[in-house]
Specification:
By secondary structure, the protein is an alpha/beta fold. Helices cover 43% and strands 18% of the residues. It binds guanosine-5'-triphosphate and magnesium ion.
Length: 465
């Protein structure tokens, strides 16, 4: 773990638009030699020698070694530090011919630039303090967004709001930490007792919890609500999956154990997107193939935002149904009694899951009975899960950020748990836990980060960004 390093001193260049036939192709160059290389390869048509900053100049791109004109187009020179990377930056807009752009890029490389690695422009921006790591991740999430909601969420993260929020929390932790560390230095006979950390810990915990909530909402905006349909074999999970999607996607047969691998599709309900997953039935004493299917079902449950626990309402509640509900423990669970067309033998209200179910509904996935009510419930769940509380900043986090927020919250909750249990953790323990929390928060913004993490983050970028 180290502080970010200063930017390296060489000049990088890359094609910033996708490689292919297009109207215009953009080559970007950043570094101390950007201006001098531009002067050698670009001849403005209208100006004699001088090249104004931040103005698009029309001119010719030359191969200076052979004094050959490669293309004509626009060049912009932007002096650092007020640029994306903080360095001198050049942008060349040329005709979008892959052959021609390759030749132009080659010329820049011959003149002293180096081909940029993936995400190297943004990595330089991060190293120069132009953006923090949370913002750099927002850049890639924005480029990769597959929906309008995902793009809007990533765009919001590009603002500094989130980083400021994290800094405020980090500062509160640092203040408490210094109080705790000061009290470690007092010996036992000293008059000053250790200050009570509880009120500050609660405040800090609430703020991190709020970050986490927003990060989860943001993830749902990006990826949809992970929804897993579970139940014992043959209750009608695949029938419901197909009925919700209105397509014949999963195989349905009267034989228990039909579905083996999880099957996934997206479903829009109101303004929300559910990523629906049909799974292998959970049963007691499975054969080896079923056992692997059930293992996969359980893995899906652990990553779910919502579990639809399906029971065959036309039969009596049995041990396998009990096993299904036990597997949903700790998850928001919607209980669906299926096969209502055959007459209900179960009373929905009597079915207890370890956590109160969000709702119980009886349906017939086959005849369509009760499906409108189920859709209404899903719509409501979708709204609840994506609602931003009034006054919240509504900036989320990347998936990495979400893991780190969880890691930051854990030590605070552990301390609060001990205090609630009437224990009095000493100043050393409190300091240790506060440090753990602080380090996770600092990793989100990249105040502390190692090169391996940076490599992994920037590998997701394309060359030229
Ligand atoms: N009467 C009635 N039959 C249904 C209903 N839903 C499903 N079935 C029937 O129940 C049988 C099993 O349905 P599936 O959807 O394959 O059940 P599953 O839960 O996916 O089963 P596995 O994949 O084996 O775990 C099929 O014969 C369906 O036609 C329903 O609402 N009413
Ligand atoms: Mg099935």
């Amino acid at each position: 773990m180290s502080q970010p390093k200063q930017p390296p001193g060489d000049t990088i260049a890359a094609l910033s638009t996708p490689r292919g036939y297009s109207g215009v192709g953009l080559i970007r160059m950043s570094g101390p030699q950007a201006r001098s290389i531009l002067a050698r390869v670009f001849r403005p048509v209208s100006s004699q020698g001088s090249f104004p900053d931040r103005r698009a100049m029309y001119g010719r791109v030359l191969d200076p070694e052979h004094d050959k004109v490669l293309d004509d187009g626009l060049a912009v020179f932007m002096p650092g530090p007020s640029t994306y990377t903080g360095e001198d930056v050049v942008e060349l807009s040329l005709h979008g011919s892959p052959v021609l752009l390759d030749m132009a890029l080659e010329t820049l490389l011959k003149q002293g630039a180096r081909l940029a690695a993936r995400g190297e422009f943004t990595r330089r921006a991060f190293l120069a303090g132009k953006l923090d790591l949370a913002q750099a991740e927002a850049v890639i999430d924005l480029i990769e967004a597959s929906s309008a909601a995902g793009a809007a969420e990533a765009r919001r993260r590009l603002d500094k709001t989130l980083s400021r929020e994290i800094r405020v929390i980090s500062d509160s932790i640092k203040d408490l930490l210094s109080e705790m560390e000061a009290s470690i230095d007092f010996d036992e006979e000293d008059e000053s007792p250790m200050p009570d950390p509880e009120p500050d810990l609660r405040r800090i915990g609430r703020k991190i919890e709020n970050l986490r909530r927003n990060a989860q909402i943001a993830r749902i905006h990006r990826q949809g609500i992970n929804t897993v349909i579970v139940g014992k074999p043959n209750v009608g999970k695949s029938t419901l999956f197909n009925a919700l999607l209105k397509i014949d996607r999963a195989i349905v047969t009267p034989h228990p154990g039909t579905t083996r691998d999880p099957v996934e599709e997206s479903l829009r309900v109101g303004g929300s997107c559910f990523v629906l997953c049909d799974t292998a039935g959970i049963r007691l004493n499975p054969d080896p193939v079923e056992a692997e299917g059930i293992h996969r079902t359980r893995a899906r449950i652990s990553g779910a935002d919502l579990v639809v626990a399906m029971l065959d309402g036309s039969a009596a509640f049995d041990r396998e149904d009990h096993e299904v509900l036990a597997a949903c423990e700790g998850k928001q669970t919607l209980i669906v009694l299926n096969k209502a067309d055959l007459g209900l033998k179960m009373n929905p209200e009597e079915i207890r899951s370890s956590r109160p179910a969000v709702a119980r509904v009886s349906i017939s996935a086959k005849s369509g009975q009760g499906m409108n009510k189920l859709m209404d419930i899903l719509r409501q769940i979708g709204e609840d899960k994506t609602q931003v509380r009034a006054g919240d900043h509504n900036a989320g986090l990347s998936n990495r950020g979400l893991l780190l927020v969880n890691a930051a919250l854990e030590p605070i909750n552990e301390l609060l748990g001990s205090l609630n249990a009437g224990e009095k953790p000493g100043a050393e323990i409190v300091s240790l836990e506060l440090r753990r929390s602080l380090e996770s928060l600092q990793e989100i913004t990249g105040e502390r980060v190692d090169d391996g993490v940076l490599d992994r983050i920037f590998e997701r970028f394309c060359v030229g960004k």
